[in-house]
């Protein structure tokens, strides 16, 4: 996934997720897994008997996010989330905002090693990892108050690439493009004047 996203272009500039913390809420995370050496804290939110992963997907999904951060969907698949129109309470917005890879993504296996996963649950940590990497790459603009959750979302949507032959109701603004998102954020200017 990192090569498909061209994450190496940001890594080569020295951006590797430094100074950014991510949290993963799932069914557990192995404390002794070789892929999770920098986990700062594990907390029990479920009253399970162990903090280790009892569902093989948790380690895999966590590793997808962590790999995109630390080491950092041309057609839509049948399991894609598809269109959601947020009515009546969602102001009629159309979702998804963007689409990204979610098929045959490599992640950590429960006992070590890797396995391949597919699904919308894989696409989510891909986007989260990209956001964390971008957030670390624009630290100066972050400190200036230019980069925030709203501007990050705008940059992801503005930089997405349209997939040919797929309508906006299925792909939103298009496929996530990490490098273009970085370029947008590097020169991003707020579209509304700040309150004084």
UniProtKB/TrEMBL annotation:
Keyword line: Hydrolase, Protease, Serine protease
Domain Peptidase S8/S53 as annotated: residue spans: 73-174
PROSITE patterns linked: SUBTILASE (PS51892), SUBTILASE_SER (PS00138)
Source organism superkingdom: Eukaryota
Pfam assignment, any one: Peptidase_S8
Protein name: Membrane-bound transcription factor site-1 protease-like
Family: Belongs to the peptidase S8 family.
Protease recorded as keyword: yes
Name of the encoding gene: LOC106819890
Species of origin: Priapulus caudatus
Keyword Protease: yes
